[in-house]
Amino acid sequence: MFDDIPEGLRVPAISRRRLLQLGALGIGAFSAAPLLAACGSSTDTASTPASGGKKKGGDLVIVRDHDAVNMDKTTVFSNGSIWIYVQMYEPLVAMTDDGQGVKPWLAESYEMSPDNLSCTLKLRKDVKFHNGQPMTSADVKFSIDESSKTKGGWEFINSAIKEVTTPDDYTVVVTTKYPWAPLLADLSCPNNGIIPKDYAGKTKDEFYAAPIATGPFMWGTWQKGSSLTLKKHPSYWQAGKPYLDSVTWKVVADSNARAIQLQGGQAHINEAPPFSSLAQVKSTPNLKVDVFPSTRTDYIMMNQQKKPYDDVHVRRAISYAVDRESLIKSILFGNGTPANSFMMPSTPYYDKNTPGIQYDMAKAKEEMAQSSVPNGFTTTWLAMSGDAVDAAIAQVMQASLKELGITMNIQNVDPSAQHDLTNKLDYEIAHSYWTMDLADPDELAQFALDPTTGGHSFDTGFNDPEIIDLVHRAEKEFDSTKRQALYSELQAKAAESAWLAFLFYTPFPYSRAANVQGFKVLPTGTYHMEDVSL
């Protein structure tokens, strides 16, 4: 999903995270074959025994440059929120660690019907909510139905679901309106995390102010703008886990201050150290560096509800004016590759032969000459204050666009404010990024290219009926060859529209104390804190 952007590469999310602007970076590893296999049946269960040698206890602190937005799993796309709330909300099936499929989680088994119109899931019988209440099929039905009826949120993920039925307390049947290739992957999405029926007797607002779910960590305290703490769930269904007593996400806006806190022992994990600092961290005693493969794509978004960004020639000109190789060398210190598609190499059905629009200043000038503003115009870049990468991209863009007669002013706002303003389409041009939330490209295609979803076409307002039709045809195609053809056509047409200026694909950089064990970031940017110990 997309989200806020940390200085590490800085940079949501989202969900799905869509999704949108405050986080880290990514390249993942999805493939079509495992995804189709996941639509069959499985009776494997998630491993539950505690690993030998893991030390119990401890209060782990993660430092990051931005705060979460909200804990409402049905509406919030920010990665800064998702990476926290997935520690509480668990799905029926979970994405595999390599991002290539799904595995049983709160459901111990699942099986698709021969006509691909329904999936039957058998629930675990040892799962308890944070309030001690056992989880049943009634809670599952309520949770999926709640997410499906949201307006302006994650409901697009569940758009194919016709109904959820509960033959007994531990059986759930999800029926779709038509054959739906991404169903199993969709059920693993954070928006479909399981919560108690009827919000455990609370109103929705009361519930999401102090959520109750089944995950390894339960609600603690939130000092907004400062820190958020989750506490250990003592009755977690995975025996012996979690190992930690608590996890705190602490907001430290300055990258140097985060590094100092990590070195000084006030923090255990730095969510997004600048790439420029990684070599130094590697040489620091008792500190480790991890660069995790990801599904992150950075891009420049242009608000097409404001002129002249409704002009495809203007958008193409700007995209041609971006020197991606230089950005990768100067900002990522070589940790990235130029983006050619809105999809990333780690997703199923990515087409490496889609050229996209790459740096060519001569072509940029040709496009401007054909545009509605051949002599240029003045615009404002909505920047994230304190974000080194965003600032560097803005400076490079400012110089490049000047060659096209475009005067680009830079307005700095708090990262959370930038997220809110772009989501409301109250901006002209800005930088953001996306990370996947599940192992199927449909989440990205819908969020990025269908303006009726909660993503507003990546907050650009882009609306092309032909492209939208391709998005929805690909969702219903189970034949992998035919589905690939649809996604290849979709990538080519989307690139031609230049509705975004794709920048680069990057990994997730993390630094940590050497005594942190079991910490691993999935290609989507999420992580399983139940596996982490000190």
Give the name of the CATH superfamily of the largest domain: Dipeptide-binding Protein, Domain 3
List unreliable stretches of 5+ residues: 2-51
Percent helix: 25-40%
Strand content: 15-25%
Rounded mean pLDDT is: 89
CATH fold type of the largest domain: Dipeptide-binding Protein, domain 3
Structural class: alpha+beta
Q: Give the end-to-end Cα distance, rounded to a whole number of Å.
A: 29 Å
Q: Give the biggest sheet.
A: 11 strands, mixed
Instruction: Give the CA-based shape.
Output: globular
User: Could you name the CATH class of the largest domain?
Assistant: Alpha Beta
Radius of gyration: 22 Å
Total number of beta strands: 18
CATH-defined architecture of the largest domain: Roll
How many domains, in number, for the residues? 3
List the helices and strands and how they pair.
Elements: H1 32-37, E1 41-42, E2 59-64, H2 79-85, E3 93-95, E4 102-104, E5 107-112, E6 118-123, H3 137-148, E7 161-168, E8 171-176, H4 183-187, H5 204-209, E9 217-223, E10 227-232, E11 246-251, H6 255-264, E12 269-270, H7 278-282, E13 287-302, H8 312-320, H9 324-331, E14 337-338, H10 361-370, E15 378-384, H11 388-402, E16 407-413, H12 415-423, E17 429-434, H13 442-449, H14 456-459, H15 465-475, H16 480-497, E18 500-513
Parallel strand pairs: 2-11, 2-12, 15-16, 15-17
Antiparallel strand pairs: 1-5, 3-4, 5-6, 6-8, 7-8, 9-10, 10-11, 12-18, 13-17, 13-18, 14-18
